[in-house]
Hints:
Number of helices: 21
Largest sheet: 7 strands, parallel
Strand content: 15-25%
Shape: globular
Helix content: 25-40%
Number of domains: 3
Structural class: alpha/beta
Low-confidence stretches: none
Radius of gyration: 26 Å
Amino acid sequence: MIIYEGRLKEFHEQVFNGEIANLIEEYFRLQGINHNNPSEHRAFQSSLSRLSNVLAYSKVNEDLNIAIEYQIPLTSKRVDFIITGKDQEDHNNVVIIELKQWEKCDTTDKDDLVLTYTGGGLREVPHPSYQAYSYAKTIENFNEDVNRLDYRFYPCAYLHNFNEKFRDKIGNVKYKEALALAPIFLEKDVQKLTDFIKQYVSKSDDGLILYTIDHGKIKPSIALQDEITKMIRGNDSFSLIDEQKVAYENILSLIRNDIDTNKKHTIIVKGGPGTGKSVIAVKLLANIIGKGYSAMYTSKNSAPRDVYSKELIANKFKSGYVKNLFSGSGKFVNSKLNELDVIIADEAHRLNDKSGLYKNLGENQIKEIIHASKISVFFIDEKQRVTSSDIGTIDEIKKRASIECSQIHEGEELTLSSQFRCNGSDGYLAFLENLLGIRETANFDLEGIDYDFEVFDDPNVMREKLREKNKVNNKSRMVAGYCYEWASKKDHSKFDIVLKNNFIAQWNFSQTSTWAIDENSFDQIGCIHTCQGLEFDYVGVIIGKDMIYRNGKVLTDYTKRARSDMSLKGFKNKLHEKDCDEIIRNTYRTLMTRGQKGCYVYCEDEELAEYFKKRLKSLK
């Protein structure tokens, strides 16, 4: 989505007349986006004025097309400035300019990170060259037409306020790879900047390139399970962006500096659904084993591990090797002290006290992971606690780390906030939490949020619409709350989920642990245990009778869960109504954030469905 676009000549006129910042704000409003950011408004005035002066003075072709604030598909990230056109050989080219108002920065010991004052404080952030390059690569990865038409991207960064005496910091040799991919230009480099631009965009393309970027066919989404083989081999398509890159490099730096000492470290990485926790976790695993250290990825939920393992084995990795990379969280019951260099605990909110089939082994999975590793890394979202046995909280991790004499690392540099699922919409998650009664947010509806969310009156219609989506790439699935007995587990002729209009379905196959990617599994319904930690293009969610709407409130009813449901074991009484309520709401929040492009919903409670539809009235 492009906020502002036009020809360079019009842009110059609007800057000259002092209109550009207010115009951009108006275009945000017309797109349905409430953009209340005074610092960005000031940046529009300052940086765009400087850039306009440079381009006008250097006589860059005024017929070239430009875009300001382009939101990269399936992310919440926006590109500052784009110029498109043709070079002298008529190649279709795209120049991306990352604009910074920084005055100075310092180097760090972390790859592609610098230290600078931004956002009201001194922070480690990606080098502007890396940032511009990662944005360009992400656009290329997502847009099918951009690749088909062979558009060429040339990213760069312009730091117009940067003090010349700090040039050796921003241009330090340690950033040479990023600088080669995306050159950086300071105040005295305006001639070099315009030469760079003119080299790649000297002739107008009449806006066709920008149109393709903004309206081109978006590739089937890149899911972690699709890239797992490339990731383990170190050549995947994921470009870590902004805080993802910061968290990743901070973890690697700590490992690099302390792996060969006798000190123990525990790292806590916080992030909501779709912020890239699992991508970073697997990238870390690949990097660490690539350097010859011992490492293991662990999770309570077997579904993602089984999917990753199946993909790796199908791509010629030996099963024994794969088994030593991915394990269940109960594996470390009898592990020796510091048996592994690093253990990466994904979905750490799902960790349990006891291990084993009968929950009778070990003491505490968090303690055992920390004990068994020199460095333990926990990726956690406390709002994804979905069973009574989930003990994974930040406080519990800190408590166990302290007992094991492991130094704790947490903070802003290890916090993931931006969305890379739900079409990159941070607003969708805020809307969802408001909708489900988890917390009050400003996102009362989906106005300005580009995400395919639909409430269906007929579950059959939802299933068939989802089936059409699934035909594209087998990346759409139906899931449900645990309100239905699993009768088909023992008798394959029975149906577990029976709804109105003769809708019938079974829970996911009991004989497979890879329902999420199996070719013939679409008609089976997944549950929280088979989809948490995974993602799809589209997800269809059946909300059972454990969530209803009465007297103006979304309520939960734990008595409507299936008798066989173990997620509320020990909680099904009046003393634990608050715990049950939290788990039910968290379960539907998790299910409804599995879709990258859309979420379809059917509610058994008709009042709840009507309430959801009223909340969507702004889309009509």
